[in-house]
Design a protein that fits this description.
Elements lengths: L32 E7 L3 H4 L3 H11 L4 E7 L3 H10 L23 E4 L5 H4 L5
Parallel strand pairs: 1-2, 1-3
Length: 125
Amino acid sequence: MAKNSSLYELKRPARYIGGERGSIAKDWDKVDVTFALAFPDVYEIGMSHIGSAILYRALNDTAWIAAERSYTPWPDREAQLRSDGKLLSSLESDRNLADHRPRVQVECLGLVLTPSADQRSRPVS
């Protein structure tokens, strides 16, 4: 969960704090593998993607895996992250997805690639 009061400056801060029904936050010291599922769209779209939800649950149902989620930020949050010098982080623990320190880093990064309405409307070059 993000612990930054600057979230109150955003239009919809709830999309960045996590803790919603069905979310799972595991203690990273009690698992062998940490996994981040990154969805290439905003929270509201990613949360409705059933495949991501199934994969998130299946990974977290495995006792030795901690899976967390990350979504593309809206422009207001992206601008805020850039101005603060921060990178994209997970919802469950607010861990930076690009941190390479042992026991802080995400060991596996999964990108959920799926065709969506906005991708199909883009011209192919």
